[in-house]
């Protein structure tokens, strides 16, 4: 036996299906956006670590510049800032390792950041310590030069070459201190050897003087000490160069790891966005297809059965009306009943039109939902644009760093020229004595070069500030990306509202069907009145035998649709069929018709006892079966 569902249960099933599909669509959208949000958080953390790396490089460069300028306060603040940033980077790496939003491959890459961060800090710390030792050694070297000059003054005679070569060596040393290059070290080393040669010649000249010979011996002792300290100073410069190369290698290693992690997270973000988009669109399309199919099946089942009943009743009414022209006044009453049936059918048609308009409204809402999901795709494209802007911003940071290197090179060249001019000034002063007129010109050039050095330093500070602003720009672009995802979530909420409207429209359809049932009830009353009237016109109805049985069969189908209790529902249709005797002849129609009238009368009494007086509730009786 095929299961029968009442119209109310069918509508409730459709609404429940819509709500379930809405829940699936909302859940898929929420899960997709949650996954994308996690990947975005990890990407932002990687950008934060990279910004710390850029800031450490900027602080280290500022420290190197302050070493050249001799600004101790800037040196200390730059070193403290660099160490603080390195500690912040290590803490951020530890926080990332403690979170659950990263996978094993990403965790392995983050763990690789610990080693270069620690090595960079150790190299920078060692560099600062060596710089302090260099300051002490430079002071010691200059003191030994001063002690040598004091001893030279005690030599009394032939000391002018010693004074000149001593000043030249001091000038070369200052150049080497200002710019620790191989050329400057070679120049300073040559100056020391020249000073040693002049000292040996001078000692040979005063070898026979007992009063001056001790001065030469003391100068030799000072030279040996000066040479040893100079070599120590040079070895520390070489060690600092190695440390600089190590720090650059560590920085490149950090940037490489961060770049790989950023690329990995970017690929993961693209994959997650693609998966989420396909999942959301798939769920929406499936929900639309299932909802449309369910609505079509329900409406088709309802309309087909009602159309069959209406067509059958209409045809029977026309045939009865045609035969009623030959009957008496009772037949006129039967015609009036047929007119009432036509009016009820009209109401049924109006209800069906309203049901059709509601179905069109559901289709329009579904189309709007599809348009809004297209907006979601545009927002995802907007997010991709913001990510490209972020990449360009990071490129600007790299360009600023390159410009910083060029300006530092300019400062080095200016410093080298300053040292040459200082050497010329020393030579000029040695030749002219106190009346060194050319010294003023050289000194003026030195001052001009110093001003150029200051201007280059200011340009360097401006570029460093641009680097910071560029990093901030990258952060702002990340915020815009988050806003775009928030807008995506708002549109998903609107999609849910549209699905709710679809469910509301389905509820309105249920009310329209209920009105249709009331019209069918009126038709049932009219049919019963026609059956009672037919008792008075039994004698004239024999010629309408076949037409009457067809009409009663359709009325039986209508009673079955109303949902009358099981046995009576089937019995009415079975007992209205014509009876035949043992000899095969048809039993008198009058007798059979009286049996039909009795059944209808008993049916009215039963319905009066089971429901409220004078009214039959359609929702208790309408049951639509599936025809396909």
Automatic annotation (TrEMBL):
Pfam families: 4HB_MCP_1 (PF12729), MCPsignal (PF00015). The chain crosses the membrane at residues 12-33, 278-299. One of its GO terms (biological process) is chemotaxis. InterPro entries: Chemotax_Me-accpt_rcpt, HlyB_4HB_MCP, MCP_chemotaxis, MCPsignal_dom. Keywords: Chemotaxis, Coiled coil, Membrane, Transducer, Transmembrane, Transmembrane helix. It comes from the Bacteria. Residues 316-545 form the Methyl-accepting transducer domain. Residues 240-267 form a coiled coil. GO terms for cellular component: plasma membrane. This is Methyl-accepting chemotaxis protein. One of its GO terms (molecular function) is transmembrane signaling receptor activity. Belongs to the methyl-accepting chemotaxis (MCP) protein family. It comes from Desulfobacula phenolica.
